[in-house]
């Protein structure tokens, strides 16, 4: 299989996305005979369309962005765009999608020719048989020109059904990529933030979604001393798109489903009610209704259910989009306040909830992401397979024991490599290590092998001299903000 992507350079305007660009470039320059299908998806606002448009400009490809409308309107728009791209004086008179797809697949030549159809699920909404049309066209065009058809779609319920492993399109696809939000290090660079503490605060609000910078008029806080003022002039300012983005995002995804219930569920999770039972109890709705809404939010990519590190059969939910978590934990209780009074006064009342709830939760997830993605194998003594929250059930007359960052290795035995606590606003001391030692003792009493387990403290405010001394003796691993953003 010959691949040559050397002639397609990633434009400077495309920030990062090196892996995605490399995969796309390799796909559209693949020299194998016959057509090929690629699928590109991603949650809204992550830059999927921007990336596909950049690829189009770099390769001279045909690009068509679908919109809601009737089948006849979409066919006509596609025909006009295709005629304009090819320089034809006549617009094709396609009778149906079979004609259109055959024409697109036949537009290549001896060299690979990219063809991009973005928002493909919108076309399927108008023409439900379109996936079958594409499938049949590929079967007919097995040995025709080297057209490289890329279909793009947001991570919606329709897209998930179209692009999953069991769909007809997925069986045809030679490439499938998902454009994810930036990780916390990429996000800091994207916002031009060098201060790890400021980067963490910002990530606790806007996460790694690229579009949020545009919704904030392209500006980020100029320094840690500007953060409060930046919150007032952007997130809490009803005149900025970022202020309304959390509500708009959920309304777009939930569509005709029970939006009030979805909001209530996100509010419950944002406040720490993270198990299915706890969510159901908090929202006071029938379990079947809650289960359906939870599945919907997971399918939309807004909520993630992850196994507990100590009990894999127990599920814990977290909100995948930090802006939604921030909105439901901090802003929702005082939704009307920014419209009725000055944002400075509102932020004074919201800041305690932000620092006490939203930032600690975001910081703990950032620590888990660091352990999974950035820590070297030497840090934990082996490559990391999972990093998750762990909770031991409350014993009789005893407290519940939790660890925010539980790291396990791979393989069938999934060795316990580390058990850690994450604290954002308090200087961590020796009593935090004592708690971790107690957790390890409880785990050992239940049959867990802790011979390779390192206690770890993740601190946003630093560590006491006694804890530093314990690290010098090899008793604990300390991870501060600088190491999270710059170290392994």
From TrEMBL:
Protein's UniProt name: ArsR family transcriptional regulator
Top-level lineage group: Bacteria
Native species: Streptomyces marianii
InterPro entries xref list: P-loop_NTPase
């Amino acid at each position: 299989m010959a691949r040559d992507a050397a002639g397609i350079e990633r434009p400077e305007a495309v920030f990062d996305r090196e892996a995605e660009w490399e995969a796309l470039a390799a796909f559209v320059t693949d020299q194998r005979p016959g057509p090929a299908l690629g699928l590109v998806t991603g949650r809204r606002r992550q830059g999927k369309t921007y990336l596909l448009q950049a690829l189009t400009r770099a390769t001279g490809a045909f690009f068509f962005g679908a919109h809601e409308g009737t089948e006849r309107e979409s066919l006509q728009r596609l025909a006009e765009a295709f005629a304009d791209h090819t320089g034809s004086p006549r617009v094709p008179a396609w009778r149906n999608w079979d004609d259109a797809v055959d024409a697109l697949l036949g537009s290549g030549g001896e060299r690979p020719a990219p063809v991009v159809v973005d928002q493909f699920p919108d076309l399927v909404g108008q023409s439900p048989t379109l996936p079958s049309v594409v499938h049949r066209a590929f079967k007919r065009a097995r040995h025709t020109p080297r057209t490289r058809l890329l279909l793009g779609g947001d991570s919606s319920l329709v897209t998930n059904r179209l692009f999953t492993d069991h769909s007809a399109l997925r069986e045809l696809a030679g490439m499938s990529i998902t454009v994810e939000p930036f990780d916390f290090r990429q996000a800091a660079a994207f916002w031009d933030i060098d201060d790890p503490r400021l980067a963490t605060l910002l990530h606790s609000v806007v996460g790694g979604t690229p579009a949020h910078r545009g919704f904030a008029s392209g500006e980020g806080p100029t320094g840690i001393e500007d953060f409060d003022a930046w919150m007032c002039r952007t997130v809490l300012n009803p005149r900025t798109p970022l202020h309304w983005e959390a509500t708009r995002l959920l309304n777009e995804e939930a569509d005709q489903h029970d939006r009030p219930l979805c909001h209530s569920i996100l509010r419950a999770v944002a406040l720490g009610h993270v198990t299915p039972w706890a969510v159901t109890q908090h929202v006071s709705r029938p379990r079947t209704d809650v289960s359906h809404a939870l599945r919907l939010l997971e399918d939309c990519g807004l909520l993630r259910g992850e196994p507990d590190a100590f009990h894999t059969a127990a599920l814990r939910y977290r909100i995948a989009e930090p802006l939604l978590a921030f909105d439901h934990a901090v802003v929702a209780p005082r939704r009307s306040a920014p419209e009725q009074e000055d944002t400075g006064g509102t932020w004074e009342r919201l800041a305690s909830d932000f620092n006490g709830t939203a930032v600690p939760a975001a910081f703990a997830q950032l620590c888990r992401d660091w352990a999974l993605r950035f820590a070297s194998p030497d840090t934990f003594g082996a490559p990391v397979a999972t990093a998750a929250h762990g909770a031991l059930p409350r014993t009789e007359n005893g407290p519940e024991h939790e660890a925010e960052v539980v790291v396990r290795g791979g393989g069938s035995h999934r060795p316990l490599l580390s058990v850690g606590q994450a604290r954002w606003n308090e200087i961590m001391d020796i009593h935090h290590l004592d708690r971790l030692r107690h957790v390890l003792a409880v785990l050992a009493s239940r049959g867990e092998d802790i011979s390779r387990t390192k206690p770890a403290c993740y601190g946003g405010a630093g560590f006491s001299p006694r804890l530093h001394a314990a690290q010098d003796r090899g008793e604990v691993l300390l991870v501060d903000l600088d190491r999270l953003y710059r170290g392994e």
